[in-house]
Amino acid sequence: MILIIDDDMAVQASLLLLFENAGYTAMAASNQQEAMELLHRHPVSLVILDLNFSIDTSGEEGIALLQQLRQFNRDVPVILLTGWGTIQLAVQGMKLGANDFINKPWDNEYLLQSVQTLLQLQEKPEKKHNRKELDSLYQLRFIIGEEESMLELLDTVGRVAATDAPVLITGESGTGKELIAEAIHQNSLRHNKAFVKVNLGGISTSLFESEMFGHIRGAFTDAKTDRTGRFELAHKGTIFLDEIGDLDLSSQVKLLRVLQDRTYEVLGSSRTKTVDMRVVCGTNKNLDSMVAAGTFREDLFYRINLISIHLPPLRERPTDIPLLVQFFIGNLKEIYNRPQLTVTREAMKWLQQLPWPGNIRQLKNLVERSVLMSRKDNLDMEDFRIQPELPAAKKGTVQLPQVGALTLEEIEVLMIKKALDFHRNKISKAAESLGLTRSSLYRRLDKYNIPYDETSD
Q1: Using only C-alpha atoms, what is the Rg of the chain?
Q2: Which uninterrupted H or E stretch holds 169?
Q3: DSSP state of 267
Q4: Are residue 300 and residue 373 in the same domain, yes or no?
Q5: Which pTM value belongs to this model?
Q6: Domain extent at residue 294
Q7: pLDDT tens digits, one per residue of 245-259
Q8: Which of 162, 183, 414, 453 has the fewest Cβ atoms nearer than 10 Å?
Q9: Which residues are in the Response regulatory domain (predicted)?
Q10: CA–CA separation, 32 and 106 (whole Å)
Q11: Do 306 and 374 belong together in one domain?
Q12: pLDDT: is 103 or 83 the higher one?
């Protein structure tokens, strides 16, 4: 049973008809007293609450009723209906226990998606599954792990994938957030549509609208052809917004508009487009702290954070390290045509004791480098421990630092600076040696505030 709380009879009638046509049972209340009476008399599974459900337009009565609802029932999902003018009020409501907020005038399909998602998330798993059972239920074959924390995480991934809930994936760099995002897509009803990955940390403020919304020819000086934006590419599919914590405040506002209304305008065009997509975000930053510091919008945080999945660092899952090593070795056997490759038990134990600040990505790099540097097929502890310098680089290339010596961002900055220095600030040559396009290199130069001379190219 869905309970609608709004004093507007037209809103009540519209929502009652919408839910009836969708196969739900619904009832309506016009005031606080009616709402609480219905809650006491009927098993309500979800509440739709207009924050301005009375003549008073301050929203205070709506907030007060939400608090009363939560005292009566902590678990029943609550969706707030609000206008753009009361977004901050909706954020206050989220802090008090509301599950979602939707702008008026609402989109029927989007509202039904939110209702279906919250009702599905209320269903509790019957039992804990082992890895074999999880693999039979979901498509998870590229995610390696049997630690209890990982099994619980994968079970959550499989269950939330079936909904359209926005998911925020957190965890240190190199823990596999992109793989989890792709698993959510592959196990969703959108699996046969596009999965679009966007590294927001690599998009400068000036290019954000062009990259995300697209542009038409002539929209700005360098717009020589039309460009399809990432949101349009993700229509009917899933978009993965990685490194969302790196997005500047002005771009956060533009992103929030799309996530709120599911509409956007192509740069250079006044025509509004509608997009239907599942949104999954990833970050290695503490967004709660950023919200408190004012560097990440609170309303955007609540919009992307209906479901939160935290990936544990590799040092907290030591029993998964041998599984990961064997997986990497299995791939390297084929790549380098060395079918006899193995790792000794002592080496495995030693690898399990390392702190792995770079997590799975660092482990993968170390295993591959050790295979390349050792002529033995049975790799022991010394093969992993001894990290000789790389062979002399060919002319026009840049040598890599040792594995684990720097963070990924520090390595990227170092590589870019060395490439620019080697090629005497010629952007096209430096980009080619780094395996980047000119525009990709320019984005990184802006991101890391690396000075460059545009006239030298």
Answers
A1: 26
A2: strand 167-170
A3: B
A4: no
A5: 0.76
A6: 157-310
A7: 999 998 999 999 898
A8: 453
A9: 1-119
A10: 23
A11: no
A12: 103
